[in-house]
Amino acid sequence: MVPATDTQQLAAELGALLSRKKWFVTTAESCTGGGIAYYLTAIAGSSAYLDRSFVTYSNKAKQQLLGVRSATLLQFGAVSDETVKEMAVGAANAANAQLAIAVSGIAGPGGGSAAKPVGTVWFSFWLNGQLSSQLQQFTGDREQVRQQAIDFALQHSILLLTALPN
């Protein structure tokens, strides 16, 4: 797990990358409850790269705010590759952002199953029309799982942006 000060450094690094490109990021967060946006907005001047963020904890919110289809939620569940992809696309479209980060997972202590144990977190990244997703399995208590998810989202976003040609 990355210590909080390192999380702040990750957020600052992502913000600097976005600012240099004059790009915007948006987040669609479920299990992290706005934590990614929290770290991004903790930096002075973050309005240069963050216009809005979505905390869509319920399925209803995912549908209403991000356009996630009820059929997707019924067939695959809120914590799934299919759902986070729809969350990322919906957030990017609503915010007119070049980067959208979507996250949905099971932070615990309850809510897990054999198929989706506590610590299961799906991520999707929409980068200028290119959609990718990743499944991560984190360990620890609720707060540790949430923090690890925030850190992963920031780290992976940095990786995606630095891999782009200049």
From TrEMBL:
Domain of life the protein comes from: Bacteria
Ranges of residues in domain CinA C-terminal: 8-156
One Pfam family cited in the UniProt record for this chain: CinA
InterPro entries (UniProt xref): CinA-like_C (IPR036653), CinA_C (IPR008136)
Gene3D superfamilies in the record: CinA-like
NCBIfam families reported for this sequence: PncC_domain (TIGR00199)
Protein name, UniProt field: Nicotinamide-nucleotide amidase
Organism: Arsukibacterium tuosuense
